[in-house]
């Protein structure tokens, strides 16, 4: 495509369109693009006109100037060229069946937030679809799909467009190892556990305890517990009836920890003065409480963001990235940190 001096369109606009077509079809991200002098000679225009066209491509993030090296296509230039419409197929099992995966509902809303936050950077529009309402006609409405992990096989068979199946696994064992290391650091000696135990989480904690010469969790100090706050409340009652000397309780979710804290509060058991409490899985927006809850927090938006990058790459004909389960960050708060609670009390006394 060449500029046409007889065209009613401005010369710099014609050159902009010509360069956009030339660069995106004739070069790759690692190729150095032609210089202003080369472009001016090729199209018979001034360097000033070339500079205006190039500046516009820079503003659109299609190309980047690298000092001392030259001008290159932005690595994600394909994202700027084409917009896709993606259907996100939701599964009832993923959202409401805790015996398959206990981190459901509130955490999965964060996964959806990750998808929505990725719309603009990936030049994608998304629409949520219940698997119960998916039909063959949906293939006409979307360029591709993101499927939640437990979408029914019968739905998958109807999909005729490219799709990726999302993963929302997290590095659970690393997270529980971090909780155990914090327990060792604070010197709590007798630890109990409330929640799901599958997947080696007890072994991960006891491995840290053993390496530090710390007492391991005994079988009678571990209570398998359902996902609700009420079940955690009852489990805490059972746990302390069997182990009255416990000075620390680890819960497999923040929701269970809230049930444990409720029981301790109603029975005048000081936290963390008498018993420290640890949650797990804390999302970005945690429920406030008194005391505030120590937890191992995960970025639950990551699985959604990763799925968006994956479907974008698939539709562009690029390689699929490899999912790396996110690691948690231990967030120390008042429920386990006696020094933090003491400092908070001192601050309140000073204020009064």
Explain this structure.
41% of the residues lie in helices and 14% in strands. The chain has 352 residues and is an alpha/beta fold. The protein has three domains: 11-79, Orthogonal Bundle (Arc Repressor Mutant, subunit A), CATH 1.10.10; 83-170 and 302-321, Rossmann fold; 172-280, 3-Layer(aba) Sandwich (Rossmann fold). It has a four-stranded parallel β-sheet. Strands 8-7-9-10 form a four-stranded parallel β-sheet. Strand 7, helix 9 (201-211) and strand 8 (222-223) form a beta-alpha-beta unit. Helix 2 packs across helix 3. The N and C termini lie far apart (77 Å). Mean pLDDT is 88; it is low at 340-352.
Number of strands: 12
Strand order of the largest sheet: 4-3-5-6
Binned, the helix content reads 40-55%
**Which descriptor suits the 3D outline?**
elongated
Compute the number of structural domains. 3
Number of helices: 13
Rg measurement, Å: 28 Å
CATH topology of the largest domain: Rossmann fold
Alpha-beta classification: alpha/beta
User: H/E element string?
Assistant: HHHEEHEHHEEHEHEHEHEHEEHEH
Percentage of residues in strands: 5-15%
Please write the CATH class name of the largest domain: Alpha Beta
For the record, the CATH architecture of the largest domain stands as 3-Layer(aba) Sandwich
Low-pLDDT runs: 340-352
CATH superfamily of the largest domain: Response regulator
Mean pLDDT: 88
| Main sheet attributes: strand count, strand direction, barrel closure | 4 strands, parallel
